[in-house]
Amino acid sequence: MLDLRPVSFLIGLLLVALGLAMLVPLIVDLASNDSHWTAFAASSILTVVVGSALVLSCMNGVGDGLTIRQTFILTISVFSVLPVFGALPFLFGATGARFVDAFFEAMSGLTTTGATVLTGLDDLPAGLLLWRGLLQWIGGIGIIIVAMAFLPLLRVGGMQLFRSDSYDSLGTILPRVAEITRSISLIYLALSVACFLTYSMVGLSWLDSAVHAMTTIATGGFANYDDSFAGLGAGAEYVGAGFMIVSALPFIRYVQLVNGSATPILMDSQIRSFFIFCAMVVGTLGIWQFGVNGESGEESFRRSLFNGISILTGTGFVSDNFAVWGSFPVTLFFLIGLVGGCAGSTSCAIKIFRFQLLIASIKAQVKRIHSPHGIFTPRYEGNKVPEDVISSVMAFFVMFLTTLSVVAILLAFTGLDAMASISGAAAALANIGPGLGDPIGPTGNYSSLSDSAKWLLAGAMLIGRLELMAVFAIISGQFWKG
Predict the structure, then answer these.
(1) How many angstroms from the chain centroid is the CA of residue 122?
(2) Are residues 431 and 348 in contact, defined by beta-carbon separation less than 8 angstroms?
């Protein structure tokens, strides 16, 4: 029989930490003489009590490690249970949100999607704006740890390519998580502080600097204003673009860099490909703006840079209504949103390395067609790629496109038009945030959607953030028979 006590124990610890994190916006509201602090007080107490109860009742079942099934369940439970409690400040507080809206907002935050159902952000209490930023900041560090510690061991979507030989046993997964958490958390915190200070230097208030620093480093996209970055100024856009790129790179490379080794970050083919793709996207948008729309100069370049990088990295900030730029930029934005950044970053979507492996596999297959008797093996960074990695990547692509199609069809059944259905499915599954068309385009939000559409999109955010295969594995009958 599957023992869920170790999983429940860890979930309990995370709930306690989440409840304690609610004290930060509580203090901010108290300092601002805002009565909204009571919502955080009630939410914090409830979350800490439930988390403590899980810890105390399950601590006798904690061993030295987790089985593979326990690891799957823990990975999914983190992003399923925490949004329920992360939703409490929205449910109890100034937004007056119903549970479906509060849960949607919390799920969007913790999965760093950035889709929002809240309107009137400009007038929300400071504590609630800070809580939205904290949710994405917590989700950002959480997904890095999941991506580097859990997904390679679970052999999800080709992530086993990044599996360390030092951690071959599932029995050592908890020490692995602890080590990765310590190393990466310091880098994550340092980048967040640097981003905060840089935003402050270009004129943002402490609240805007803090929230946008957290949501930029997490590539989440929650902003403090209904019009996102449109009114924050040119300096903020350049700062945002720079730190979005930084956050889309593998954080393990920063750890190696801090430890005195610059070679890995300089020689990483995934990083090189990502920078090349960024240049292509920004250059293409700039050429379109100049050649077709007749726009030129610094502002045109800045808008192409900021919005292109934002969608490519899955952050979802917008500084302009790119839906009116023309059909080509809109199509380009849709496609690049599915690409994402590097594995082991806070970025989302399919990831650069999977496209590299796909291209390598296609090249090998074409060579086999030309030379049937030759032996051609796909390579990644000069090394032969194991067949199971190629199979996992191919399965990921198939499942991603299949899931995208199913979610889009189901959204159409809720009454959305074709553009909103397809782009909404992509925005949720790839954790991008804004969709295309009305009402979920770059200048809209998800508030007017039906409850069924919101639940569906919240589920798609979870599936996409956990790289699809982990979620589909746990709902299969074979998983529970093992």
Answers:
(1) 24
(2) yes
Within 8 A by CB and 6+ apart from 134, the residues are: 21, 24, 25, 214
**Residues 286, 307 contacting (CB under 8 angstroms):** no
Which residue in 269, 273, 346, 334 sits closest to 307, CA to CA? Answer: 334
CA 418 distance to own-chain centroid: 25
Label residue 437 by pLDDT band (50, 70, 90): confident
pLDDT at 369: 85
Averaged pLDDT of the chain? 89
In the block, which residue shows the tokens 């040119």? 234
In the chain, DSSP finds a helix count (H) and a strand count (E) of 22, 2
| Section 51-66 average pLDDT | 84
Q: Is 440 helix (H, G, I), strand (E, B) or coil?
A: coil
In DSSP terms, 383 is beta-bridged to 380
Task: Average the pLDDT over each of 181-185, 422-426, 467-471 and give the range with the smallest value.
Answer: 467-471
Does position 417 have pLDDT exceeding 50, yes or no? Answer: yes
- Residue 401: which of 434, 426, 428 has the closest Cα? 426
Question: What is the C-alpha to C-alpha distance for residues 279 and 281, in angstroms, rounded to an integer?
Answer: 6
Gap between the Cα atoms of 24 and 44, Å rounded: 10
Helix (H) or strand (E) holding 277: helix 269-291
Going by their DSSP bridges, the two strands 383-384 and 379-380 should be labelled as antiparallel
Give the pTM. Answer: 0.92
Tokens standing for residue 116: 């929002």
What's the distance, CA 398 to chain centroid?
21
Nearest in space to 37 (alpha carbons), one of 21, 49, 25: 25
pLDDT in tens, 300-324: 999 999 999 999 999 999 999 999 9
pLDDT of 288 over the 80 cut = yes
Residue 193: CA atoms inside 13 Å, Cβ hemisphere, count? 6
3-class DSSP assignment, residue 448: coil
When computed from its CA atoms, the radius of gyration of the chain, rounded to whole angstroms, is 22
Helix, strand, or coil (residue 97): coil
DSSP state letter for 385: P
Question: What is the C-alpha to C-alpha distance for residues 172 and 166, in angstroms, rounded to an integer?
Answer: 10
